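This part of the workshop introduces the protein records we will be handling. To make this concrete, we reproduce a full record directly below:
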Amino acid sequence: MKLTTGGIGFSVVVVIVLSVITVTLLGHKSSQQRPVRSVHTSTATSRSVGTSGKTSPSAAKTDAVKAHKKTNQQVVSSPDEAIAQATAFLENYYLILPSDTEASRKARIAPYVTKYLLARIPVGLGEGTQANEVRIRNRLVQRGKAVLAQRTVSTTKNTVVLSVPVVVSVARSNGKMLHRFKIVIDSQWSFAKGRWLLSSFEEGGDSG
């Protein structure tokens, strides 16, 4: 007998319906024969328990010791992280592009500085002065690079005081050097809320 497409579809539906009914009846019968067990899938909150269902004394004591250590633990970050932050800050602070404004410079250093200091640190470009006009007209670029080999560092709890020379250079956009000098920077970095931030900043004299 030749089956049409519609006949085949109807036969498949009948088979599926019968299969579903059979599986449902078998599952219902099986659920009546076997008791349901409660399963805890989470191991993060499991505890050692005694036959009474209460937390065992050894497990309770271990939890208490861990909680005490966690409460009394003080976070102290590595001074190397503060030095890395200081290096990044100095590069961003002394970078001045032809298109820069006071606002763009402030935005560039904001991730490294406390809000209090950000409002007071000098980032002006002398808008309206002849020097600033020359900078824009000649598309001059200023950059700064910390000389970490000559740094001095002192550390206390969550505080790093860093003194480091910075070589500042001014060049044309084609790379031709016009001026270069070295200046010593003293800065203090404080570790709070998981990161190092600049809390004090002072530019020294030209070190030649």
